[in-house]
Design goal:
CATH topology of the largest domain: Rossmann fold
CATH class of the largest domain: Alpha Beta
Structural class: alpha/beta
CATH superfamily of the largest domain: NAD(P)-binding Rossmann-like Domain
CATH architecture of the largest domain: 3-Layer(aba) Sandwich
Helix content: 25-40%
Strand content: 25-35%
Number of helices: 15
Number of domains: 3
Radius of gyration: 24 Å
Largest sheet: 11 strands, mixed
Distance between the termini: 50 Å
Shape: elongated
Length: 436
């Protein structure tokens, strides 16, 4: 059987890894796929630089449209990043009857609904294992391995840059700005790290996970997105004293009211496996009604780990290319006519526990005033830590952990607490998840 022909858009970190791994493991991949998989054309901006990598293996062009319009190409692999140009290229490839593999989480989170509809209409596949958590096969696990389960919730460390920063802040007691600079020097963070540190990258991935876990459309615009740039080292230390660690989590939950979809710093009990995932590693915890909790851990980025996921998608498509489109695994795990329209809950309606840090006057009656406000809003306190004031200081910190309550109640309580004459500055609020 003749090899399947692949057109590669982009030869950066992931593209070069895909080219390298595919050539290195060609024999093994062919044995698994049932036929050869060959990159027959590459499109890049810097043609001469790419030719130094590709050599004489295949033509290198500067115009991506030459790849998506090439009638000899069966699968287009989109690895160029961004959203608008990739959207045009992917839709053009689909219109031309080509299957698509992409690692572009922003593209799918924002334009996925349009892309999947076009692919279904044309009878082609769009595969995107590499878009979430690099080499960890979380998409395949949710779509296929856990298909017997009613997924209850998913919580993941899905951005290695922020996990590295939080690990260093905890281990070394350094502030955010210092560790961010260190992460940039080591190549873990981009020169413009906004998408990572403000939670946008994690929210793109959480949006994809949510859609597959619950069979809902991509709804990135309804996700709550909060990063770690405002997180202070003192809160990481206090959390540790209370038996918790702080991680930036992407969380999506099924509730009786709707779906929660949120990214934010989160306290997790230090005894949980996911709380002990350090450095730039990723981990995703899935709760299913039949299987219980299962965790998926590994490298969430990097050239060859992500290439591993890209090539796995190429193998899947190669195996299924001749199959009846109606018998393939649906893009979002559920049949297209069974996609649910459950609402994404606004943050005010979500229910979780909270860590609150207050800077207060060191005098009698302060705690009573605070607890009265919380009791009036039906907020129950689970644990509390009151620090002794430093010598010659008249202010101190009070740290409280609450039982589960609605976010809107906590926001009302904070507003009233900050109005007390004995409370200084803003109350620090960090959400807490037991993940049990």
């Amino acid at each position: 059987m003749k090899p399947i022909k692949v057109g590669l858009l982009g030869l950066g970190t992931v593209g070069s890894g895909t080219f390298t791994v595919l050539r290195r493991n060609q024999e093994e991949i062919t044995r698994r796929a049932g036929r050869g998989i060959e990159i027959s054309m590459v499109a890049v901006r810097q043609v001469e630089k790419a030719r130094a990598i590709v050599g004489d293996a295949c033509p290198v062009v500067g115009d991506s449209m030459l790849v998506v319009d090439n009638p000899d190409i069966d699968i287009v692999v989109e690895l160029i990043g961004g959203t608008e140009l990739p959207r045009q290229l992917v839709l053009r490839a689909i219109a031309n009857g080509k299957h698509v593999v992409t690692a572009n989480k922003a593209l799918l989170a924002i334009h996925g609904n349009e892309i999947f509809k076009a692919a279904q209409s044309k009878g082609v596949m769009v595969a995107f294992e590499a878009a979430v958590a690099g080499g960890i096969p979380i998409i395949k696990s949710l779509r296929e391995g856990l298909t017997a389960n009613r997924i209850e919730w998913v919580a993941g460390i899905i951005n290695g840059t922020t996990n590295f920063i939080l690990s260093e802040m905890r281990d070394k007691g350094l502030d955010f700005a210092t560790v961010l600079k260190q992460a940039q020097d080591l190549g873990y963070a981009e020169s413009d790290p906004t998408f990572d540190i403000e939670g946008v990258d994690a929210a793109h991935k959480a949006t994809i996970i949510s859609a597959i876990a619950f069979g809902i459309p991509m709804q990135f615009d309804k996700a709550h997105v909060e990063g770690i740039s405002q997180l202070q080292a003192i809160d990481i230390q206090y959390a540790e004293q209370l038996g918790y660690r702080i991680k930036l989590l992407g969380i999506t939950k099924r509730t009786t009211k709707g779906i929660e979809l949120r990214v934010h710093p989160t306290l997790i009990p230090g005894t949980r496996l996911i709380a002990n995932v350090e450095g730039a590693m990723n981990a995703i915890l899935v709760q299913g009604d039949a299987v219980g909790a299962s965790m998926y851990y590994g490298k969430g980025a990097g050239s060859e780990p992500t290439a591993s996921a890209v090539i796995a998608d190429l193998v899947d498509i190669t195996r299924l290319a001749a199959a009846d489109p109606g018998h393939r695994v649906p893009h979002l795990a559920f049949q297209p006519n069974s996609i649910s329209q459950e609402i994404i809950l606004p943050m005010a309606e979500i229910t979780t526990s909270y860590y609150l840090r207050l800077r207060v006057a060191d005098q009698a009656g302060v705690l009573a005033d605070v607890t009265r406000i919380m009791a009036d809003l039906s907020i129950s306190i689970d644990a509390m830590l009151q620090k002794e004031p430093a010598e010659n200081e008249s202010q101190t910190d009070i740290i409280m952990l609450t039982h589960q309550t609605q976010e809107k109640n906590v926001l009302k309580a904070i507003e009233k607490i900050e109005q007390l004459a004995t409370v200084f500055g803003q109350v620090t609020k960090i959400r807490l998840e037991e993940l049990s």
